[in-house]
User: Fold this.
Amino acid sequence: MKEESEEQSRAKSERERERGRERESEGERPATAAAIVGKTSPSAMAKKDADLGSDIRAGLLSSSIHPPPAQRMGIDDLLRLHAGEFGRWQLRHFVLTCTAWTLEAFHTMVMIFADRQPAWRCLSDGDCPPEPCGIPSSAWEWVEGTAASTVSEWGLICGQRYKVGLAQSAFFAGCMLGAGLFGHLSDSFLGRKGSLAVVCILNAISGVLTSLSPSYWLYAALRLLNGFGAGGVGLCAFVLATEPIGPSKRGVAGMSTFYFFSGGIAILSGIAYLFPTWRSLYVVTSLPSLLFVLLILPFVSESPRWYLIRRRTDDAMNIMRDIARCNGRALPQGISLKLDDEVDGEEEAGNKQALDCSREAESGSIIDVVRSPATRMRLILMLGINFVCAVVYYGLSLNVVNLKTNLYLNVVLNSVSEMPAFFITAVLLDRFGRKPLGLGTMALSGVSCSIGFMVGGDGAMRTARMVCGVVGIFGMAAMYNLLFIYTAELFPTVVRNAALGSVTQASQLGAILAPLVVVAGDRVPFAVFGACGIAGALLTYYLPETMNQPLYDTMTGIENAEGQKLLD
Assistant:
């Protein structure tokens, strides 16, 4: 009985605990409900409603208060999609910058007139030989006086004739040195615009000092200094003019720069006619470089690509906004710039690859070009092509003094004849591509000069040889124009000017040798020019095509692209 009573007691206790748990469970529900409804004061309830409404509004408005992450794209994409590839801004910038090419033509081709051999005459009525060599100095005189040129002032004839070529070679040697130095400086801290200002000031000062030369050797030294500045003008102006232009318009724009150079040669001929003495000619052709720095360059913007590779993204974006505004467009909100090998969404402060990319993008040198397999062979081929092209182009241009006709008219015709070559090349550039066009123009020049070597130099054959020379310079002028845009597209932004400087050095080396080839006379120049043209065509065959290809900013970008091509 006692055991039954204990069992009943335990069962009863168990039932009571069960009912207690049920009451507790049931009590939680009313308590929870009461917390919301029954046991909450009106003021507390209103506060909770307000808080709930605030949370809802915050969720709805968060997209406007906190915009989505900024869209990042390269300069080419931003120009193509939003700012405009070639509008009013690029046209104004291009024309103002390329004015420097006209001034470079003054400094480069002034030697044709300053170092010319003026007409002379015998003082006696007897027979007069074709050359004054061997005639007593008292038996003849210069028709225009001794102040007409350096040749007449310092007697650079006969055995001293080599000094004319030496002074011309000194100028091109200076160009070779200046192109290398300013190619590097414009890629580094000095920038494209800063480098262009420095070389123009140097040209103005050295040109005026050249006009004051008391002796031949000082004249040659100052021509070296003048060439040092002139060597940097072309490449700095070219890169500065073409980098803000969109990819589909950059080829034609780059080709158009040579119109300014050829136009400068034609203008120079008129200036030389108005100022027939060599000293006054140097002054008149040098001062415009200073005026360019003072009156034109302040209205030219620095390259946004240079700002970008120097990690000055805000400055680059300001220029891109100016481009869009002037072109009648607007950049989307929240858009920003990136280098071509950066990935969207990466944070520069927390991503080691982005930091390495930025450090790499700050500056580059020709050593980086040689070190990279993606650019090494491109550089070697371009060095050879630029060398042979310069030998032919400058050789045929300087040969105008041997035609024994009106020098001023010949120079004008020579410069004007180059313009159709530029136009035809510009039209065909984006239709056939850089490589086929370069190969064809080099082959045309080489074959025509080879024919000129095979024909005679008397009678009708003299005219045939002249035609061969005209066709040769037509083809080489087209290729010379193409080389700048081709070279610029072959190398990334970080080393573009360094590469342009190096190939320009090779070009100037060819220009140094060109006067020596011309001096050989007879058929030798045409033989050399023909061989150079054909060799240049063969080298062009091994270059890659760059038409409609991205304009890379860093070495990593082009190396990744080349690696992807190998995988494909």
Observations:
- Residues 64 and 118 are 78 Å apart (CA to CA).
- The chain has two domains: 2-65, 75-123+145-311+356-567.
- Confidence is low (pLDDT under 50) at residues 24-68, 345-355, 357-362.
- Strands lie at 71-73, 120-122, 140-142, 335-337.
